[in-house]
Amino acid sequence: MTVQLPDGKGGVRTYEPRTEPLAFTTGAPFTSRRVFSAAHVVADPYADVSPDGPAAVDWDATLAFRRHLWSHGLGVAEAMDTAQRGMGLDWAGAAELIRRSAAEAKAVGGLVACGVGTDQIASGTLAEVRAAYEEQLAVVEESGAQAILMASRALAGAARGPEDYLEVYGHLLRQSAEPVILHWLGPMFDPALEGYWGSSDLDAATDTFLEVIAAHPDKVDGIKVSLLDAQREVDLRRRLPQGVRCYTGDDFNYPELIAGDAQGFSHALLGIFDPLGPLAAEAVRVLDTGNVAGFRELLDPTVELSRHLFQTPTRFYKTGVVFLAWLGGHQSHFTMVGGLQSARSLPHLARAYELADGLGLFPDPKLAEERMKNLLSVYGVEQ
What pTM was estimated for this model as a whole? Predict the structure, then answer.
């Protein structure tokens, strides 16, 4: 059987899907790296909602996907950018997601860390930003999950310079009950975060970021860096205080950053590990044995898919992630909160299907083929 896929030039091309998936086994958490998958949310396709209204979430399917990730030994990074935080999922929805996911993690023994932000306010004074962070930090800590202090659009708007970031983050770290993960999300993921840490000069911003950590090393478990700049991440992790982890958020260069070098390595907190979950877990288990070459042999071929999903505008990568979850049978529909299933073109989605199928990511290749053909028919592509 073949599939006629749009070629992006007004025509179609013939693709022959694979017939057998790769075989992945479930297993315990890893020993050499701490690895989180930033997980997507599953929308309720029957809800009568508007794109700018509160999100309607299918909780059963959303939690089932988290159990899928935990079963492979991955941790879940909850209520993050991949869960459409600030792009369809508001704070009320995120708070419920955090509580439900944390409770599910306790039930199955899964690792979970949850995003703490300020998205209950659009803007405000520094005092209001601090209060918003505090409210969310309390929800995460009360749930029993680890906190991830996310970059804040409101703080980016309110801060006058580096000193305001030092004050706000210092205040939050002093009162956090347990060590947190600090998250530096670049403007390619969210344009409103341009100039974070008080400067658009990344060297100056890095100095401020490190100053926050150096002042509170006992309250920082690690940092997540999402700047899509491998060398900058390597340079940054070499300057971290002893015991502070670097979690790569680089969806372009993750194999080399996780593998590391003679001077260290990155752990992982990645959106691409949502669709790559079982394969990524298999690769890390190989790395646990000390087999770096085997790890790279498994994970390097996935980079083309990741770079495709995260191509500019990068913030719409969530559309491809949810699309692959639908093709993979993890949900019954291709609907997203906020209507973001429309954020990528048909040729983009077709290429994502082809790359994912080539990697053997779909547990049931025939189901993926049928669903791809169904979508193509909606767009008028004849088979």
Answer: 0.96
